[in-house]
Design brief:
mainly beta, 4-stranded antiparallel β-sheet
Length: 191
């Protein structure tokens, strides 16, 4: 998500996947580029743009993804460097709280916590979950991956029952189904 003044439309515009399940690269005359690569746009508003940083060949990666530009009606201001974090992270629903689903598919929260030894589904970005990722495409099928990352609770790796693509979610989001321990440390991290 990009925040700033005067980024886009005064009315929020929400991107919709096309017939192939791919989000648009332009909404209301707004585009965002990273070097020569156009970003799929999920939503555009006056002070915020929600997007997916496009997948780029490994050779394009370096200390920066390339200059980022917000293009409005064909005009682009000066390009801004974008530092590349280069690490996976667990999505958060609120600061410090993993975006997770409990075993019964309800949203995990302080008022609806997971039970010890139950399975939870957590979502991670920053990993390549599919063999041929397509920027902005909705993942249609489950595809398991081998990864060196493992969710942990209190620094102890959790048993992983599935790691791979998250069907129905934009490509690039990985899903981990893990079992919680008997004593739950509320801090989930990737190790």
């Amino acid at each position: 998500t990009i925040f700033g003044a005067g980024l886009g439309s005064s009315n929020q515009l929400t991107g919709q996947p096309d017939a192939n399940g791919v989000y648009p690269n332009s909404l209301g005359g707004i585009q965002v580029s990273f070097g020569d690569w156009q970003a799929p746009l999920l939503a555009v508003a006056a002070n915020q743009i929600t997007l997916q940083v496009p997948f780029m060949p490994e050779t394009d990666l370096g200390p920066q993804y390339g200059p980022m530009q917000v293009i409005t009606g064909g005009a682009a201001p000066a390009a801004l460097p974008l530092p590349y974090a280069g690490s996976a992270a667990i999505f958060q629903s609120t600061p410090g709280w993993a975006a997770a689903l409990n075993q019964d598919s309800t949203v995990n929260s302080a008022s609806n916590p997971a039970k010890p030894r139950s399975l939870v589904t957590i979502y991670v970005n920053g990993l390549f979950c599919s063999n041929l990722p397509v920027s902005g495409m909705i993942t249609k099928t489950a595809q398991e991956i081998d990864t060196s990352y493992f969710p942990s609770s209190g620094g102890v790796p959790l048993p992983v029952y599935y790691s791979g693509t998250a069907p129905g979610v934009i490509d690039g989001i990985c899903q981990f189904n893990v079992q919680l321990p008997d004593a739950i440390d509320p801090e989930l991290t990737l190790i």
